[in-house]
Amino acid sequence: MLRKFKITINGETYLVEMEELGDQASQTAVSQSISAPTTMATPTTPPAEPAAVAQSAQVPTAAVPATAMTAPMPGVIIKLLVTPGETVQENQPLLVLEAMKMENEIVANKAGTVDQLFVSKNDSVNAGDPLIQIS
User: Fold this and answer.
1) Maximum distance among all alpha carbons in the chain?
2) Strand order, beta sheet including 39-41
3) Of 17, 85, 99, 126, which has fewest CB within 10 angstroms of its CB?
């Protein structure tokens, strides 16, 4: 699909035509004041490896117990209501997760003591990420 954009840089107007080629590097044709194309440009830096970026954000699974409470949905932790060592009751609010502009309280699934918090305020989490360990 060919898309056209009109761009003004330092007072000079350029008509830029861009063609989307899928996974291949896209080419840009630049013309001055809607004249014939005069310059061809291609990106010089390759895209980052998505697998390498995803691996750096993962929590090591050896440090996370299988019984840890996990995030029910992706979002951002906006409040921590408990600290490690604190005793909690079943259904007591533990933290607040903001997802899609809504605040969701994450409550204790059992009574016990908070062993470990795996998140901090303003952390982004995905569904299934560990949040808290209660023993």
Assistant:
1) 73
2) 2-9, 12-19, 28-32, 39-41
3) 85
Tell me the per-residue pLDDT of 56-114, one tens digit each, with 9 for 90 and over: 444 454 567 778 899 999 999 999 999 999 999 999 999 999 998 899 999 999 999 99
Note if the pTM is more than 0.70: no
DSSP states of 83-125:
-TT-EE-TT-EEEEEEETTEEEEEE-SSSEEEEEE---TT-EE
Residue 28 CB coordination number (10 Å): 15
What CA dihedral angle connects 4, 9, 14 and 18, to 10 degrees? -30
Single-letter residue type at 5: F
| Contact of 134 with 114, CB cutoff 8 Å | yes
Query: How far, in Å, CA of 15 to CA of 63, rounded?
Result: 54
